[in-house]
Amino acid sequence: MPQILKNILTERDNQTFELISVLTLLAMTGMVFYAGYDLIHNNGRFDAENYGIGVASILGGSGLGRYLKKGTEQSSMSSSGP
């Protein structure tokens, strides 16, 4: 997996996948796929306003989820030594 994608999809430890990020990536990929399918197979009846509302909803929900989750993450700066 490319390093930038791994950084986006994992928590601060770069090992544990973050559910919010994975679901956001899947939702955005699906929206782009279905918008392209609609544009190609339905002769350009793509509604940019509804697409924009959907993208904003996904990104807003993702941002809210990240904000609510940040209090539960371990800080990478904490030391476990004596």
Structural class determined from secondary elements? mainly alpha
Basic shape:
elongated
Mean pLDDT over the residues: 78
Output the number of helix runs. 3
Count all strands and give the number: 0
What gyration radius follows from the Cα positions, in whole Å?
17 Å
The low-pLDDT segments are 77-82
* Helicity, as a percent range: 55-70%
How much strand content do the residues show?
under 5%
Q: Give the biggest beta sheet.
A: none
Spatial gap, N to C terminus: 36 Å
Please write the string of helix (H) and strand (E) elements.
Answer: HHH
Features of this protein?
single chain; 82 residues; mainly alpha; 3 helices; 63% helix; elongated; disordered C terminus
Summarize the structure.
The chain has 3 helices and no strands. It has 82 residues and is mainly α. It has a domain at 19-68.
